[in-house]
Each structure stands twice: as C-alpha cells, then as structure tokens.
C-alpha cells in the first residue's frame, strides 16, 4: 500500500469533483435565473464561456491550499477559505467578462448567482468527502517507539482519522527491554488476539532487543505488514524533520543534476502564469499605490537584495508595507514597523504582486522556498544544518512552508519550515 499514492488520488478526486460541481452549479444557476430547465444550447454556450473561468478558479483553489494537507485534514475553516476563494474568483470573473471582449457576454446576475450556488455545493461536496474519509478509517496500527517524532506522529494520527488509520496499540520501546519473551512479547500477543489485520510502524529496529526483531520476522511470514517509520512520517506530514537529515539522506534524496525537460516546462508555466496573473492584477495597482502614498507619503515599492538559486543575489520587488528606513530584522504580525495599510497588504498577500516581475525575469518561480535577506541567510546557515540546500532551487512566490506555517519571525521558525 502506498500512502503517497493514496494522497495523490484523493487530491485528483477533489480536483475532478470540484470541476464537476462547478459545471453543476452553472446548470443550477441558469435554472434559477430563468425558472425553467435550461436548453442544451443555452447551457453549452455558457459552459464554453465559463470553462476558462473555471480553470482559473481551480488555480485559485490551489493557491488557497484547498488541495493541500490542511484541507485534507479539515483543520482550517472550510467556510472561511471557500468564501475568500469565491470572492477572489468573482473579481477575476468580472475582469474576464467585462474587460476582455473575447467572451462576448456580460453575465452580471448569472455570475452573482453562480458564485453563491457554487459556494454552497462546494461546501456540501467537501463535507461529504470528509465524512466519507472518517467512515473509511479501517486500517489498524501498532506503533512502537518513544522519540519526539514518534510521539508527534501518534498524536497526529489519533486526532485525524481522515488519514485512514486507527491506532490499535501504542507501545513504548522501553517496555520491550529486558525479558522480551515473557513481558514484551505479551504486549503484541494481546493485540494480535483481538485483531488479525494489523500494520506495524516501528521507530527504530536497532534500538530493540534481538528477540523483538526475530519476533517481527515471524510476524512478517504470517502476513503482518511493516512500514518504514521515516517514510511513514514523511507521507503523513509531507516533510522530513531535520532529525532525519544527514549527509547520506541528502545525497540520496536531493540532486541538482540536469532536469532539462522539467525545468523548461516549469519555466514556461511560470511565464504564462505570471503574464496572466500580472495582467489581471494590474487593476489593483493604482489603488494600492495611492493608499501607500496617502498612508505615510513614502515610496510605493520596496526593493531589496535576496539570496536566490545557487546562492545568487537578486533584487526583489514588493509593495512597501513597513515604515521608511525600518530595521532589517524578523517581524511578527503586530510589529510597529508595519504600516497601517501594510498590515492589510501582508494579510492579503497583495504586497507580493510586484514579484511577478521577478518571476518573468527568471529570478523566482511561482512555487519554491521564500527568498531570504542576505543577512538572515548568513545567520541561518550558521545556526541550522544544511540550510543552504534550499538554494538549489529557485525561490518562489509561495511554497509549502508559507502555506502550512505562519509568517516566520525567528531562527526557530526557519528551522521548522526547513
């Protein structure tokens, strides 16, 4: 069984389900608008016009992390994020229909109804997925270990049945020390007497007594399944903690070798996406520039040096969110150096729109680790092992750490994000 494959299948299912829901929403919208079943040609003509809009909406869902691990577990507010995503989608659709003559229609009422209907249906669809995942949590686990990552994994699985696992028994490695034949083995025999189909996740075989390892070999021939702890941990959390990382792990898992086709395809996608998002977002620029100037009279843009791919330094462009001549230090979200309008721009990520120019220039990608200030990069390289490995790839507008964690305000935050 491949948990990564299962997760990817779920994401693909969510994507296809969302697409079908958007199509159904459009059909219901036409019904509500005209109060009769929409004729085939009416629905098809609107579906053709809305098809490219729906593709962009799915991209917005992706940016909003609606296909990410957080929503796989439903930890974040589904209602709140769907509302925000659909509000953004409404603005984007308005730009499409009213500023691009290609579409030939300006569906004011239909667009408004469709936004509301699709929000309701998407919420019902995602809630049904959550309920289904919880019902199907059938695979029983026996966890064997005692370290901090082991405890973290056990707590995560206990709180989220959506992974498809239930902890049947948790055994501390220390309980297996000593007389395994009489005391340690009994712990497993009791579990196997109640449940035959069990999956074992063992933190470290080398820390177990020889008798325990031999016992596990016997269980393997009886059909029991064992998972490598590191692989299992990474499939659940979607990252490897630094305690797993050493020279051997890096050389085995990370390579900067030639990937010509992948790099070319990714670069092409970056250019197309930056051009599209950049053109659509131009409508916001005058308003943002005016409010920044009115706020404190300072410059509109903040241009600074950042560390990019292969440690090359580049100039990054952003809308200014801090006071003029602010100190170069880590900030928290309520820092006094952040201006009034800057706080709003940071929360909405609108301050990062000028970085689309960096994407077009090739300094950055859409997805990748966030680029560091030069001073911060030097500090973090000294404090965190293997930190500069992140610079093997291009920095990005958004990435795994930005989606899953708050704004980094310390070396400790950087350690966790790495």
Characterise the protein shown here.
The chain has 418 residues and is of the alpha/beta class. It has three domains: 3-134, no CATH class; 137-238, Rossmann fold (3-Layer(aba) Sandwich); 260-417, no CATH class. The protein is 57% helix and 11% strand. It contains 17 helices and nine strands. The strands form three sheets. A four-stranded parallel β-sheet has the order 2-1-3-4, sandwiched between helices. The protein has a three-stranded antiparallel β-sheet with strand order 6-5-8. Strands 7-9 form a two-stranded parallel sheet. Helix 8 (210-221) links the parallel strand 3 (198-202) and strand 4. Helix 1 runs antiparallel to helix 5, helix 4 (78-99) packs antiparallel against helix 5 (108-135) and helix 11 (260-281) runs antiparallel to helix 14 (355-361). The chain is globular.
């Amino acid at each position: 069984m491949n948990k990564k494959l299962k997760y990817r299948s779920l994401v693909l299912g969510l994507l296809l389900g969302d697409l079908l829901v958007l199509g159904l929403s459009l059909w219901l919208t036409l019904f509500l608008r005209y109060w009769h079943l929409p004729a085939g040609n009416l629905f098809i003509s609107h579906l053709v016009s809305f098809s490219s809009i729906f593709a962009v909406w799915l991209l917005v869902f992706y940016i909003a992390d609606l296909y990410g691990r957080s929503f796989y577990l439903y930890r974040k507010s589904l209602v709140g994020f769907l509302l925000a995503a659909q509000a953004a989608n409404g603005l984007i659709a308005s730009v499409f229909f009213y500023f691009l003559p290609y579409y030939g229609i300006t569906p004011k009422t239909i667009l408004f109804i469709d936004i509301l209907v699709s929000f309701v249906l998407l919420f019902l669809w995602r809630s049904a997925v959550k309920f289904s995942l919880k019902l199907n949590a059938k695979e029983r686990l026996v966890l064997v270990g005692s370290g901090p990552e082991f405890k973290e994994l056990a707590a995560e699985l206990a709180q989220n049945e959506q992974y498809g696992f239930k902890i049947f028994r948790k055994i501390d490695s220390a309980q297996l020390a000593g007389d395994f034949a009489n005391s340690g083995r009994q712990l497993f025999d009791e579990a196997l007497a109640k449940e035959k189909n069990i999956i074992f996740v063992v933190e470290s075989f080398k820390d177990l007594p020889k008798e325990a390892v031999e016992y596990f070999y016997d269980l393997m021939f009886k059909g029991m399944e064992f998972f490598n702890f590191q692989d299992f941990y990474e499939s659940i959390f979607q990252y490897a903690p630094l305690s797993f990382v050493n020279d051997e792990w890096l050389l085995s898992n990370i390579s900067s070798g030639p990937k010509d086709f992948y790099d070319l395809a990714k670069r092409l996608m970056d250019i197309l996406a930056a051009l599209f998002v950049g053109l659509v977002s131009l409508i916001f620029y005058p308003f943002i520039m005016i409010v920044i100037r009115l706020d404190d009279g300072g410059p509109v843009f903040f241009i600074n040096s950042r560390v990019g791919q292969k440690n090359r330094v580049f100039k990054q462009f952003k809308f200014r969110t801090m006071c003029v001549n602010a100190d170069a230090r880590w900030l928290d979200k309520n820092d006094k150096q952040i201006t009034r309008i800057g706080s709003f721009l940071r929360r909405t990520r609108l301050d990062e729109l000028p970085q689309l120019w960096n994407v077009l220039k090739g300094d950055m990608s859409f997805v990748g680790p966030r680029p560091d200030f030069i001073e911060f990069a030097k500090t973090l390289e000294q404090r965190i092992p293997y930190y500069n490995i992140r610079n093997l790839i291009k920095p990005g507008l958004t990435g795994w750490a930005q989606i899953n964690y708050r704004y980094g305000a310390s070396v400790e935050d950087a350690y966790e994000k790495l």
